Structures are given as C-alpha cells and as structure tokens.
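Regression report. Comparing outputs from two consecutive submissions.

Submission 1:
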Amino acid sequence: MTTDTTDSDGTSESGAVGVGDGADVPDRIAEQFENIKRTRRRRAFGWLGLAAFLAFATLQAFAATELLNPDARLETFVESLTGFFPITDYFGVIPFLDIGQYTSFIRQENLLYDPDIGGLLFQFPPNPTDIYAFFFQELGIFQIFGEAGITLAMGFVGTILGFPFALIFGTLGSERVTPFPFNFLFRGTMSFIRAIPAIIWTLIFIPFLGLGPASAAIAIAFDTIGNLGRLFVDELEEIEDGPIEAMRTTGASKPQIVFFGMLSQVRTGFIAWTLYIFEINVRAAVTVGVIGAGGLGYVLTSQQNLLRFTEMMATLLAIFLLIISVELFSQRLRSRLRSDDVEMSLWELITGFPRRMVNSAMK
C-alpha cells in the first residue's frame, strides 16, 4: 500500500520514491569506498615510483663519486682507523685508546693554550707589569688559546665586521622599508655574496692581504653580510603592523618608524641570529684555515699532508672542544634573551646536560 502526501504547492510525493532514494545510499557508499581504494593505489604507486627513482639516482651518485670503483680502498677503512685511534695494551692484555698521544700533541703544538702568553696572566703572586703586558702589549685574550684562539679570532672579527653591513643590507632589503624593485638591489647583493663560499672569498682576498688570518677574517665578514643579512630580512617580514601604524598616526618620520617601530620588534631576534652566525663563522674559520689561513684548520691539513693521522685526530679533538665551547657560550647568551626560559649558570648548563638529555628521552 502506497501513501500519498500533498505539499502546499499541490505536488504529491509517493513513499515509493523515498524507498528508491534509500536504495541508492549503499551504491554511493560503495562508490566512495572504491574511490578511496583507487586513491590509495595511486599514492602507493607514486611512492613506489619515487622510491625507485631515489634508488636509481643513488646508484648513479655512487658511480659518479667513484664509490663503486673496485679500486677504491674501502676494504682498508677499518685498518686505517688504527692511525687515527692509537691502541695500547693495558698491562699487555687489555687494549685501550691512548689518549695521552692526543694530549701530548695538543700541548706540544699549543692548540688550546699558549704557555708563553698564559704565563703573563697566570702566575702567583700576580705581577702587575706582566698583566698589563698581557692585555695591552701582547693583546693575549685570544692568543692565550693558541691555535684555537686564532681560529676563534677569525670568526669573531668576521662577525663584528660583517654585522653592521648585514644590518644595513638586511633592513634596506626588506620590502617594508624599501619599496620594490629598489629593495631587490640589496637582496641581489646579498644573494651574490651567499653564492660564493667563504673559502672562495679567502682565495679572492689573498692577493690583497696575503695568505693568513687577515684575508680569512675579511672573507668571513663578507660571508656574514650575505647570510646574516638574509636572516634579518626574513625577520623583518614577520613583524606586527600595529606599532608601525600607531607611529604613523602620530606623524613619525620614516627613519623613526624603521628604528622604533620595526627594529625594536626584532631586536632580540637579531641578537640571537647574530650569535648563531658567530657559531657558523667559527666553523668557517676552521675551513678557510685548511688552505693555509692559519689556526686549527692549518694545523689539521699540515698533519694530513705529513700522514700523521694520530696528530690529525688530536687536532680534530681540539676543533671539537672549540666548537662545543662556542655553542655552549652562544646558547647561554640566547637563553638570557628568552624571558620565558629558566636562567641557568654556565656550570649548570654543562653539568646538567646528561640529566636534561635523559629527561628529554623519557618524555
């Protein structure tokens, strides 16, 4: 029996039609399910094709780097490790890593400490004449750290010299400060500087300043302009418009808006990025030292040329100690800038590292 209902406009609906609509629901669900399965199959084939392409590209890359060459000395890799890690038998039975050979070379070559400079400062009773000579005649704040101090000084000078130019180029490169296309002049300059690695900039400055720390420091400064300036540009693009509009309503000039409305918002970020670039510059100082610019990089390549792999490993250990010290120092300063972080002393930062690692792993 079929019941008819009449709408207000005079049209009638049959209950049989409703039954027919209900019968279409399973068909639509089945169709959607098939669409989902087809989509998943396409994605699976897509991922399979991507994996096959990456495998093929990896094979080609291995061939291009000659790692598939049968003449490659990969089979002697384990044997070569003994040159980097000297093993001595304890009591003639228990083998252990002879750290003494590392520390002996580090002391002999003054990689981390120069006793001639340090002797002016660390003596008892203190000699005011020698202390004055340490600070104002020998200028030994960096030289006291030996070859590591030269590497640190190159990175520090490069950061100090490059920062003001990075600030100028980064500020003027922002479209909020300089309208397009004029801001592209500063962006393009920074892009050109970034396109040339610091080690190439060092080779460029060698004819002018000679092969040494001076050319390396200027090269790192140029590298800082390109890298740090780009970070400044990105930071300025994310500032809030509220303070800027408020200053405009008060009739502030464009320089006042830039300095007090824009740069005031990114002051903390600029300092944090500068400290980060300083860490990178210290690593770059090691790299440019390899070509003869001085510091730990030069000692490293010298020992490598002499095939003294134990001394080379000792230099790598000194480089690690320098880099990790700079990172701890930089992290400490950046934590001071973040008001929401709990302040820790440098000693707590070092000694509490294993505990923080365990707490992080347990989360």
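Submission 2:
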Amino acid sequence: MTLKKIIISPDSFKGTMSSIEVCSIIEQGIKNIFPDTEVIKIPIADGGEGTVDAFLTAIGGEKIKVKVKNPLFEEVEAFYGVLPDKETAVIEMAAASGLTLVEDRKNPLVATTYGTGQLILDALDRGCLKIIVGIGGSATNDGGIGMAAALGVRFLDEENKEVDLNGGGLENLERIDISGIDKRIKNCTIVAACDVDNPLFGPSGAAYIFGPQKGADERMVKMLDENLKNFAGIVGRDLGVDVQNIPGSGAAGGLGAGLVAFAGAKLQPGIKIVLDVVKYDEIISNADLVITGEGKIDGQSLRGKVPVGIAEKASKYDIPVIAIVGAVGDEAEKVYERGITSIFSTNLQPIPFEEAKICCRKNLLKTTESVMRLIKGTQGIK
C-alpha cells in the first residue's frame, strides 16, 4: 500500500502558531519520511486573527489594504481578502476592530466596530457580492452599531442626535434610522464566521462572558449588558428582528447581532464556511489520510471545533484522521465517536505552557515524524 495523498487541515495552536505555520511544519515532517507523497495544505481559522490568510493560502486571492478607524477611532491600515472569483471578500473584524489594536487601552465602553463597516464598504466598492466576516478577537461591545453606521445607518437619542458609536452609546439609543443604509447590502450575501453560540445579553451574553477580557470590570459588565438589552429592544421594535434569541448574536460584543439586523447576515460555524468555500469534499475524496489539530483537544472540541468538523467530513469517505495537538484535556476521548482515529500530543514532557511554547515548533515536527514513522512501519506502507 502506498501513501499517495495526505491532507493537512489544522486550526491554529492558540498562543503559539498560526494554522498556516502548523501546516508548513507538519508538511515538513511528512516529507522527511515520505518525500514523494502529495501533500495538500488547507489551513483553518475560526473567524479571528489569521482568517484572511487562511483563505488566501488555501485557495488564492488578493490581500487588499485599507485605511480605516481602529476601535478607538484612530486611523490605521487594515486589510481584507478578495478570493479568485473576484466576487467574494473575506474580512476578519480583528484587523480593524480587534483587541490587539488597543493594547493597554482596553475599554469596551468606548470601542467601536466602525472600521469593520469601512472594510465591508470597501468590499462593496470593489463589486463583491458575497462577504464572509470573521467575528473573533474583538475589542468591542457595541452591538455592531459602529459597523452599521459606516454603512449609513443612524442611531439616535431622544433629542434626535446621534449617539456615540460604542458600547456606552447604546445606553442613550432611542431610535434607529436605516433609510440611509447602503442599498448594495441588499444584493450582497453576508456570512458571519462565528464559533460561539452566546446570546446578545444576559448571564451568557456578550458582556458577561467576553467583557472582562476586553477590559471591563464588574460594574462595567453590568452597564454593557443593560445597554445591549436596550439595543435589542429597539432593534426588535424598529426593525422587527429578535436578535437576542439568535445563537451567536453575542459574538464579538454583539457584532453578530448587528450583522444579522442590519446586513441580513447568516451566522455559521467558521469551520463550515471554510470547508464549503474551499470545496473540501472534492479535495479529500481520494485522500489516504487527513491530519488535523489544535492547541488543546477536549470535550469542548465537540462544539464545532476544527478537528471534529474535519473528521466528520473525512468519515464520509472512510478516510482516517489523525489529530496532532498541543495538549489533551478532559473528555477528549469523546472525539473518537465523531471520526477522529487517533490523537497525538506534541508535549513530550509534562511542562507548563510558558515553557512548552518555546519548543512547540520543534516538538510539532518531531511528533509528525514519529507519526509518519509509525505509519511507515505498519502494514507495509511505504
């Protein structure tokens, strides 16, 4: 038996390596043992940083750079991707409205998604008819009103003055005027890559679950949550959209809700979007092996994470799937029921993460080579 074709489809290893980097290291490990084997790399991203590069690496396209407003309304250079069909844009909101752009100035009361709206607007100007928006890694909690304002929506207080386009401004919101929204939005399909199912407000909502990591203390979290509740009520009254009860509406500080309400977006798991766009079924149909992975595999991986999504696709074609991961957590064995054949950890010694990440690349290469040697040494595979 000959190992002719291997597909590599990992997520990033959070805090250490991007999915693109993981792909390259695993490819090297394969080639060191099976130099003649065809290797196809499909890096996967979950909607956060690296989403654009993952798409462009997988299927090609062009990276577009644009001057936009960052979360604090300062001008920065952001980017998005246009895929080879010239009609599909891929945006990661983190490029314009991400947490990394504010560094030590985190404050979701004043952060805005306006720059994300500017990226959408630029994609429309280029004639894009489908826009994929990755909504991970945000610094914001504004319900997407900044994004919508960039597209022409007006958010007004009781005196008919425009509110601040941030999480704090939602407190004064009394009326939404969509009459000036860019008409091209209606003819554009918007898909939001979202890997959480949190509602907009409440104990499991955007503010309570994600606010603290964006700089919100306990008092601010309560304020932000109340503001999102006010926003949801006005959206329901003025637009007739119940954003609270849409799974994932609380993603990216409520940008999920805003994209649905103002752009007619569909919220989908990031893994599903990527696999559909790259036509993954066609790519793997004649593969001999699929290698996937992520930083840590555990019971949470069953909730739409990359390795399980990949395994479910591969199982349709009876293709074995190996998961190479940084760490193995509780209930990881449950992924075997979803199509994962075997799990290998790159951590060769039980050391803390801060130490492990120093040698993570070397260990990933060694682990891949070990897996390939095992395959080579069994059943006469060459």
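Expected: both submissions complete independently.
Actual: both completed, but the second showed a warning that disappeared on reload.
Relevant detail on submission 2: The chain has 13 helices and 15 strands.
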